[in-house]
Specification:
Elements: E1 2-4, H1 10-36, E2 43-44, E3 49-50, H2 52-88, E4 92-94
Antiparallel strand pairs: 1-4, 2-3
């Protein structure tokens, strides 16, 4: 199947990015959360440092917001880039069948 960049909707592009960045960053975030359990004063939520189990849970609570913001900014950059490229030409993507 061939996908043309002019046919990609903004909503489906955001879903694709959110799934990729959200699940992809979850593994990194889990590693950092585990490390925060061993380092004192590693998480700063409300101007107070947390470590141990509190640092681990606070890190995991921050992750969805981080993933959403990261996906949102990436989506904005991609939308601007695709809009610019689509004015002159289009990009075609070929999927594996």
């Amino acid at each position: 199947m061939i996908i043309d960049s002019k046919n990609i909707s903004k909503k489906s592009l955001f879903k694709f990015l959110l799934a990729g960045i959200g699940i992809g960053s979850l593994f990194l975030w889990l590693l950092l959360s585990l490390l925060s359990g061993f380092v004192s004063g590693s998480v700063d939520m409300t101007l107070e440092s947390a470590s141990g189990l509190a640092g681990f849970t606070q890190s995991l609570l921050i992750w969805p917001f981080f993933a959403l913001i990261w996906a949102g900014f990436t989506w904005l950059f991609l939308i601007l880039g695709l809009a610019t490229i689509n004015r002159f030409t289009s990009i075609t993507l070929q999927t594996k069948d």
